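Weekly structure sync, notes
Attendees: PL, DS, HV (note-taker this week)

Item 1: Membrane protein
DS walked through the input record. Source organism listed as Streptococcus cristatus. Sequence as pasted into the shared doc:
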Amino acid sequence: MTILTFLLQALASLLAIITFLIVLNVQRSMLIPGGVLGMSTWLLYLLLKGPTNVIIATFVAAIIGSCASQILSIIYRTPAVVFILAILAPLVPGYISYRTTAFFVTGDYSHAMVNATLVVILALVISIGMASGTVVLKIYSYLKKHPLHYKK
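Item 1 (cont.): predicted structure, written out as tokens:
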């Protein structure tokens, strides 16, 4: 991927996520932070997709995006759902879902089943990754309050 492609992906994802948040009637002051978080999640996904695969890239992006959305919700004193919507937008496999439907309609059931399986796996990976991000932050805050003491 060239640097120009990367920058175009960043700009397009930022605009798409801000537009998505506007459609969902998110308050105006949260559009830029939500858009930047969603753009960062998308760029992380793109960077990880090359050396790994779609499933691992989605999982890692969901975990990191979930942690970031929890932190931003504390910083901006707003519900975390605003930022969670921003990281969901780039991770949901919309094009694969569309292709699955197209394969079913055209009667190409073998490709349809492969794509449907991938859509279900990605949906599970996104939900598990987002829940894991919340758990990671809970464990971190617990360990910060209750440090471990090792006996020699």
